[in-house]
Write a structure and sequence with these properties.
CATH class of the largest domain: Mainly Alpha
CATH architecture of the largest domain: Orthogonal Bundle
Radius of gyration: 24 Å
Order of helices and strands: EHEHHEHEHEHHEHHHHHHHHHHHHHHHH
Number of strands: 6
Strand order of the largest sheet: 5-4-1-2-3-6
Strand content: 5-15%
Shape: globular
Length: 474
């Protein structure tokens, strides 16, 4: 029997702390990595160019990691249901390993790949890796999946967390016969974004690859994590972890991340520091809450969790939606956030909530329009997290307090007191008085003089209208 196995990478673009890769290395003398450019994903309307460029950077780094370990990462292009079994059969691999995914499309695809491999008498081995806890293990007292975060957090936090997994990738040179066989397959070199049909000219806000992710974690846990509870809501300062893209593509293992937080607890020297660590751990739990929600309730990917929202009478004004997308609503904090998103492919989390509330509660536009636009632009766009956040903001999701409306002026006054964030992304307001920017008391003449638009809606009127519409469907 062949001594070769394949490890199929997807959103786990690393060698270190990988459950499935460690298992593969224990089972075979040679382990070869493979990544498939899945055209069913790349052809979607919600793929962000910045995200593709970041992914390609991560793949370049991963290929180098394989090379330095004496192995290699192969690239194939097309339908994984065809390409992965073809590659495994051509190389006479005895097994293919990969990690589970919570997304509905991925689960269907993986089942089809598994069936095709077994038809070739090739073993299939799958593991949970992306989450600290298998989604089938965190249940309510009635053995049901959680639909409310707070009790989920208490249960999830009480469970012991797994330690990082050691991976020793063996030297895995292909034989001359295997190399010759590969010439009959559509293996490819690592493509460029342009070759895949995407263009992103701006610098990436996050450096791709495992080395950069590890360094970012060290930097965050050395300092910012201790002030995280106090600073995470202020978009003008670097108070967040900067780990979202790395977690999305799995360039760092979640067990490694959790271990860093527990080490930070040991080093903490104040209640404030401990509060910062706990708050960030709760954010990691939110990530898993949304992942587990999508796993148990796959219909979330297509519509609202709350049934009555399926009949909600959204206004869906396309002109207003365009203004929101372009950062031209006349509400400074909203426009600053949208321009940050458009120019960098990223947006501060507090601002994500502000602009989502504004789209759904002020413009009364279907949250799915915003969800899709975020996925079309975000470097860290992840279906579970993005969907969960949008449904939370729209009041259509899993939330014990479903009706929540953000006042964009109040949010700006509280979290951008000096208007530094607004001025950075809305430069036409640089010379305008801070109080005028934050209060909304920008006179039409002032707006005209600096080239800034009038508000496209009145918040107080729209707030009342949304409440009326909400009451009518509830």
């Amino acid at each position: 029997m062949s001594d070769l196995v394949l490890f199929w990478h997807r959103n786990d673009l690393r060698i270190l702390d990988s459950v499935g890769l460690a298992q593969a290395c224990h089972s075979a003398a040679r382990v070869i990595g493979v990544f498939c450019f899945d055209r069913s994903i790349l052809s979607r309307e919600d793929i962000a160019p910045a995200r593709v460029v970041y992914m390609l950077g991560c793949l370049k780094a991963l290929a180098e990691d394989y090379r330095q370990a004496g192995s290699q990462l192969l690239f194939v292009d097309g339908d994984p249901v065809d390409r992965i079994p073809q590659l495994a059969a051509t190389l006479k691999a005895k097994a293919v390993y990969w990690h589970h995914d919570v997304e509905p499309y991925s689960q269907i695809r993986d089942e089809q790949v598994s069936t095709a491999l077994k038809a070739h008498n090739i073993q299939v081995h799958t593991n949970w890796d992306r989450l600290l806890h298998d989604p089938t293990t965190i249940r309510t007292g009635n053995k049901q999946p959680y639909s409310v975060y707070s009790p989920f957090w208490r249960n999830w936090n009480s469970q012991p967390k797994p330690a990082p997994v050691e991976v020793k990738l063996p030297k895995s040179e292909l034989t001359p016969a295997e190399i010759q066989a590969l010439t009959q397959l559509p293996t490819i070199d690592l493509p460029t974004a342009t070759e895949l049909g995407f263009t992103w000219a701006a610098p990436l806000i996050f450096e791709p690859g495992t080395t950069a992710a590890a360094q970012q974690l060290v930097t965050f846990c050395h300092d910012s994590i201790y002030q995280y509870d106090e600073q995470r809501n202020y978009p003008a300062i670097s108070g967040t972890s900067g780990m979202s893209a790395a977690l999305k593509f799995g360039t760092i293992g979640i067990r490694t991340v959790w271990a860093a937080t527990t080490a930070a607890v040991t080093a903490a020297n104040s209640e404030t520091a401990l509060a910062g660590i706990t708050t960030w751990q709760q954010e990691l739990a939110w990530r898993e809450f949304y992942q587990q929600a999508l796993y148990h309730f796959p219909s979330l990917a297509q519509g609202p969790y709350r049934d009555h929202f399926k009949q909600f009478p959204w206004v869906n004004d396309k002109t207003q939606f365009k203004a929101w997308c372009e950062g031209k609503t006349g509400y400074p904090i909203v426009d600053a956030a949208m321009r940050q998103l458009n120019q960098t492919g990223w947006m501060h989390n507090r601002c994500r909530m502000i602009v989502a509330s504004f789209l759904t509660k002020d413009l009364i536009i279907n949250w799915q329009w915003g969800e899709k636009y975020f996925m079309q632009t975000l470097i860290d766009g992840d279906l579970a997290a993005n969907n969960g956040g949008w449904q939370w903001s729209a009041s259509s999701g899993m939330d014990p307090k479903p009706l929540r409306i953000f006042n964009p002026y109040t949010q700006a006054q509280k979290f951008d007191q000096d208007a530094n964030y607004i001025r950075k992304w809305v430069p036409e307001l640089k010379s305008v008085d801070t109080k005028m920017i934050l209060s909304g008391d920008l006179l039409p003449l002032t707006r005209h003089q600096v080239g800034y638009p009038l508000p496209i809606v009145d918040h107080s009127i729209q707030q009342r209208l949304f409440k009326e519409l909400y009451a009518s469907v509830k």
